[in-house]
TrEMBL record:
Residues 155-324 form the DUF4872 domain. Residues 14-142 form the Butirosin biosynthesis protein H N-terminal domain. This is Lantibiotic ABC transporter. Transmembrane segments: none annotated. Pfam families: BtrH_N, DUF4872. The lineage of its organism: Bacteria, Bacillati, Actinomycetota, Actinomycetes, Kitasatosporales.
Amino acid sequence: MTTVRDIDARGMQHCETTALGVLLRHQGLDLSEPMLFGLGSGLSFIYWDTKNMGFPFLGGRVKPFDLTRNLDTRLKLELLVQETTSPRKAWENVVASINAGRPVGLQLDSYYLDYFGSKVHFGGHVVAMYGYDDHDAYLVDTDQQGGAVSTSLTSLAQARAARGPMTAKHRSFTLTAPKNLPSPQGHIIPAITACADAFLNPPIANLGHRGIEKAGKLVRTWLQRTDNPQRDLPQAALLMEKAGTGGALFRNLYRDFLAECTQLLDNSHLRTGHRLYAEAATLWTETAALIAEAGESGDAQRLVQAGTVLSDLSRIEREAMQALSCLRSEAV
């Protein structure tokens, strides 16, 4: 068995921040999960529905791996990304890193992992790998999936080779922190204002505050959108609350990020943003509950209520991001 020494195999709430935490702690940089998420400008929103989809999807974060790239840029890390169409070369890339004493991040389809309880294809899943033997790979995944886990080398190869929405070509990556480890404090304002700009100025109506407003209108039709509302609506609600989002469609994580920032920076706009995201987080959990209840009962009025709450959320989050965007004028 070959393993990287001194691994802190701590599972967190979200897969990408969990993997980033493992890689950065090994470099001597230990940041909270909300701070990793916030510095990576991870918060977003998308209402996603296509003809090929069985049911609409509500997403609450930026695209897979964008968070990692954002964090790399912000903290001036050295991000080495390797992709290949060759399974053999993909395995050699990983083995070389681990043999050199470095954990490696992997983007893959969680469907194939032995330990994964929910067999749903998700090609944007990220794990940290820190060891292997003749039969198994040793990974760190979210706390919900078990933290320090293992999966067969066969299943890992299938997960990495998968093709479909959000997949990458056997993507693996490592992070190297500079010798003078960065303090997050100086990077907070740029991370927040970049996130606010993207949220307030979405290129299409499905994204940002406009996407939430659109969701508020379309969610009212969801009972007619499916042949199996008792399955699909509770599943949508579960994805909002439990599928690695930290609860409230990532709003709990962003609320806690802003709370941590208020301990580092004394700023009224920051406090306003935190207050509004605390309100928003509660309302997102309420929305998920209403959607689940609508599916279980068939009561369309629950979806009307959910639509009203989503309309309120569009306004609340827009006001929060407008306040947070004001931080730019106060940045050094």
